[in-house]
Design goal:
This protein has one domain (8-135). Helix content is 20%, strand content 25%. It is built from four helices and six strands; from the N terminus they run ββββααβαβα. Strands 5-1-4-6 form a four-stranded antiparallel β-sheet. Strands 2-3 form a two-stranded antiparallel ribbon. Strand 2 and strand 3 (28-31) form a beta hairpin. The relative contact order is 0.24.
């Protein structure tokens, strides 16, 4: 799948095989667990989702965002996206909390500039896109039919 340079919201599905303790910038120390992490974000600026996902595929030598610290200890498995000019990461975070097995591993991760408890969630088993979609009322907004590209798009391992 090719990610287009359009604005949108995304979820990174990451696996972790480590139990290390890592420092996440000024946020604090995080105890990693073996399992899966889901990170939620938006990309509304130049380059849109393509540029942001490309950033997350690389390991950062100079971490900027909280997720950059975690990426050094995880493997990117897949990305779920929705092309849309509206910032939906906060809605997704509220819905992700409701998915069975979701745990918040570090409060305020990726959410230091909003009121969400976190934009990072941990699962012992690999989360299924269908579990999230079943809980997430984002397919139809304001009674309109969704655009063809406004659904979650699975990727192969990247």
């Amino acid at each position: 799948m090719v990610i287009e340079p359009k604005p949108g919201t995304y979820a990174l599905i990451l696996s972790c095989a480590s139990n290390a303790r890592i420092q996440v910038g000024r946020l604090g120390t995080m105890q990693l667990q073996r399992g899966y992490y889901v990170y939620l974000g938006s990309a509304l600026g130049p380059g849109g989702l393509r540029a942001r996902i490309a950033h997350h595929q690389e390991l950062s030598t100079r971490p900027h965002w909280h997720i950059d610290y975690l990426r050094a200890h995880t493997r990117l498995h897949s990305v779920w996206v929705r092309y849309d000019g509206r910032r939906r990461e906060h809605e997704w975070a509220r819905e992700m909390q409701k998915v069975k097995g979701a745990m918040i591993p570090l409060l305020r991760f990726g959410a230091s500039d909003c009121s969400c408890p976190s934009h990072l969630y941990f699962f012992k088993d690999r989360p299924r896109r269908t579990s999230f979609q079943a809980k997430c009322p984002l397919e139809v907004a304001a009674g309109e039919l969704p655009a063809e590209d406004s659904v979650f798009l699975p990727m192969q391992d990247v």
